[in-house]
Amino acid sequence: MELPLVDAVVPVYDREPLFLEAVKSILHQDYSNIHIYIIEDGSQSTAKYSYYFKNWNNITLIRLNTNHGVSYCRNLGASLGKGEYVAFLDSDDLWLPDKISKQIVFLRNNPMHKWVHTDEVWLKNGAEVFQKKEHSKQGGIFFERLIQRCIISPSSVLFEKNFFAENHGFLNHFKVAEDYELWLRLNLKYPVGFINEPLTVKRSGNWEQLSQTIEIDRWRVLALHRIFRIYKNTPEFQKYIANLKKEILKKTKILARGAEKYGHHAKFSKYQNWLKVFNTF
Questions:
Q1: Separation of alpha carbons 186 and 193, rounded Å
Q2: Percentages helix, strand, coil for the chain, rounded to the nearest 5?
Q3: What does DSSP assign to residue 190?
Q4: How far is Cα 176 from Cα 217, in angstroms, rounded to an integer?
Q5: Contact 162, 102 (CB under 8 A)
Q6: Hey, which residues does 121 pair with through a beta bridge?
Q7: Which of 217, 232, 85 is nearest to 164 (CA)?
């Protein structure tokens, strides 16, 4: 029986050796039917490394002249792919060799699930980092936990391609917290599968990461507000409104305090106005 095709999308912007290791972790999967889409997001220094892959039959290299952001790159790779499934790998992360094969088996055996994620190993500068209880992963619908914390990693998820496309993928205008927004949108209605094995390696170190972006909570607040605006009148959403309001006020107050502390008066005024709006929820 022929294995279903999996599209693996790797956006990259100036992460030379890390990016090479990430792509090699896909090439070393024990699942053989994978096509890799490398999306160079207007980077310069990565070009000489990605050139190494240009003659591989199972790798498509797309070079963008300007930087569009990770959401655009992931969506572009997914739209180009012909596979039944799509997975994403950040250019500083890794997959363990049996990651994709175990996820395919899970989705085949659990047809009610259209997406599945895995547990992770966290490495900081090469050393394993202990994960706190609040970072623990799970499956099913756990929207209330997702409101508080982004506990699904983009590098750990495998989607049925049609499911990903029907739900419009990542929002292109979300330059950061794009994963947080998508998980909220999906998990409100659709349970996610979970493989309780560390099949993904999440790496951090002395390089720039989107999760370290200043005011990332601003984008998380915008994601929560967007979810509220879309679903506020649906019966199934009513039980979440109190917790969503609590979290959106908490994050906005943090933003306001930070703006006040550093003398950003316009931002402080904006966040004070946000608080007035959010208190009406």
A1: 12
A2: 45, 20, 35
A3: S
A4: 9
A5: no
A6: 201
A7: 85
- Residue written as tokens 């990332």? 216
The tally of CA atoms less than 13 A away on the side-chain side of residue 79 is: 12
Lowest-pLDDT choice from 24-38, 39-53, 61-75, 133-147: 39-53
Closest residue by Cα to residue 28 from 79, 92, 95: 95
Q: CA 220: distance to chain centroid?
A: 13
The rounded distance, in Å, linking the Cα atoms of 123 and 9 is 22
Q: Tell me the angle at which helices 216-231 and 178-187 cross, rounded to the nearest 10 degrees.
A: 30
More confident residue, 53 or 1: 53
Domains of the chain: 6-211 (3.90.550.10), 216-278 (no CATH)
120 CB burial (10 A radius; 0-12, 13-18, 19+): buried
Q: Is the pTM of this model over 0.70?
A: yes
Q: What does the buried/exposed string (b/e) look like for 62-77 if buried means 16 or more CB atoms within 10 Å of the residue's CB?
A: bebeeebbbbbbbbbb
Neighbour tally for 134: CB within 10 Å: 9
Q: Length of the chain, please? A: 281
81 within 8 A of 2, measured Cβ to Cβ: no
Task: Assess contact for 221 and 251: CB atoms under 8 A.
Answer: yes
User: What would the pLDDT profile of 92-134 be if each residue is shown by its tens digit?
Assistant: 999 999 999 999 999 999 999 999 999 999 999 889 898 888 9
Joined together, the tokens standing for residue 93 give 């992360």
